Structure prediction request, 236 residues.
Amino acid sequence: MLILDAGVVLFTISLNSGVVATFMLGGVYLSYGLYRDRTRGRARNRLHRWLKVLVPTVSVLLLLLFASLAVFGRTDTVSHREDAVVVLGAGLKGEEVTPSLRARLDAAVGYSVANPDAVVVVAGGQGPGESITEALAMERYLVAHGVPEARIIREDRSTSTYENFVLTKGLLDAHFEADYTTAFITNDYHVFRAGGIAENAGIGSTHAHADTPWMEIPVAYVRETLAITKFVLTGR
Prediction:
């Protein structure tokens, strides 16, 4: 299932580290399943004994991490009284927003209706396989769904979540003459790490989640596991 999902995301969206990691994880499980029975009789085989403990233990820990990220990510803290809402970018396919990004933008449309005075920052530069910046594609989507263009600020130079927040902070500092409050919107799996990065970038922020499209769930959560490891080590 992991290998199949990695293939679906690869051919329908794009190649990324989550696709590679999910394919490799699926390969590990497939190899273990194929060769487990062949080694079952080798009771004294040290490697076999370790694998019998290691594979289930790692599997349980991963599932607990995924569940924790999902529960935390779906617990929104927005008050709908913030001065600005930051919509974090995700990948494009050419000029077309991907399902994950579309979910974020739909959540942003809902937020802008609930808080019509908030400035909407769309944050994302141009990555491999993208014909335009994510920020421009996001702005076009929001305008097409009723968000006034005058309310939108584009941050179109970032290439990571950390840069999303750092560059957005510069734009908001210049836009507001006094102190301001912010919220950010991203997919549920990403909320925990995004909140920590926002704090490190100097933005205290509430958050609202967008659902993760079902076909992207395995790839998204496996990729986020790698990203959290990087965040723990580097703060970004």
User: Anything to note?
Assistant: The longest helix spans residues 46-73.
